[in-house]
Design a protein that fits this description.
about 60 residues; mainly alpha; 2 helices
């Protein structure tokens, strides 16, 4: 089950990175590019937090 969760989180993170990259490529100006970068950074933090929470839940369940 842990591998499934990890794979899902990894796929979500990869999708979000791709979406953010696409937004950067299609940005019409520097402000839009900056906003896309900030959104990407926020998503990375959220994905990292969720992965850590999932890791803690799995660790507590196996204890």
């Amino acid at each position: 089950m842990d591998r499934v969760k990890t794979s899902c989180l990894s796929m979500e993170f990869t999708f979000q990175e791709g979406l953010s990259y696409t937004k950067k490529l299609t940005a019409k100006n520097e402000q839009e590019a900056t906003e896309a970068h900030l959104t990407e950074t926020k998503m990375q933090v959220e994905a990292t937090d969720e992965a850590e929470n999932a890791k803690k839940r799995v660790h507590h369940q196996s204890s």
